[in-house]
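Sequence in, structure out.
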Amino acid sequence: MSSRVFPAARLSRGISGIAIVGVGAGIYYTYMRNVAYADSGAPKKAFGSGPAFLSLELESTEAVNHNTRRLRFKLPTPDTVSGLTLTSALLTYSWPKGSTFPVVRPYTPINSLDEPGALELLIKKYPNGKQSTYIHSLKPGDSLRFVTKIPGYNYQPNKHSEILLIAGGAGITPIYQLIRGILQNPEDHTKINLVFGVNTDADLLLRKELDEYASKFPTQFHVTYTVSRPESGSPFRQGYVTKELLNEVAPQPGNSKVFVCGPPPMETALVGSRKKPGILQELGYQKDQIHKF
């Protein structure tokens, strides 16, 4: 979704919390009795093809910076995997105290999708964000309900010779999930070029992990950081994600694909609108080459 963790407003638009309560009452306990996992011998999957309404216990929570926390939830059993596919997200549900209606928001897991026993989220708290505020208030031992998985882009290894990933703020989470999935697959040789724009040095979420990937896969993965308000003496490039920056570091359109996730103004500038083409079109990318998370 961040900055957004996932485009919550876009994905959750039209989803009624009241409807979810009604549906959930009918299937939540059925799910908990049956927990529709895979056949014996295969890894158990917490999230299958339908709604889950699964309550997961928070194992740990860690402050990453002034407004972002990394939260690790326990899956139903130590050998259960999430069952998610690459570029997918999870819809969370809560009814914060004092809220008139339930709140549902999508978030993208950042740990390996086949890691057994755990699910990790990186969530930024927004000043008026009911769900993010509620989740930040959780303590180890508390639980959060997960409604269902949200399938994302149908990524196919080696379909494109090179991809351009553009993230703004906490929009890095679906981008990071894709990076991790590609680099963990030794059969996927897709080259990755990431441009990550943030407001301050502290907003460079997952920087340690990204730098480690850049060091481990120097010919396959390259990252460019740009900070609009860098600290004094900051080692990072100063500025926004501009046409000039992309013209300098982006691959030629050719057989490449572009993935974008960030604040709405940034996405509009890059992708354009019905009335005006965006920076990516000006650089030669066609609309079908661009995917917004």
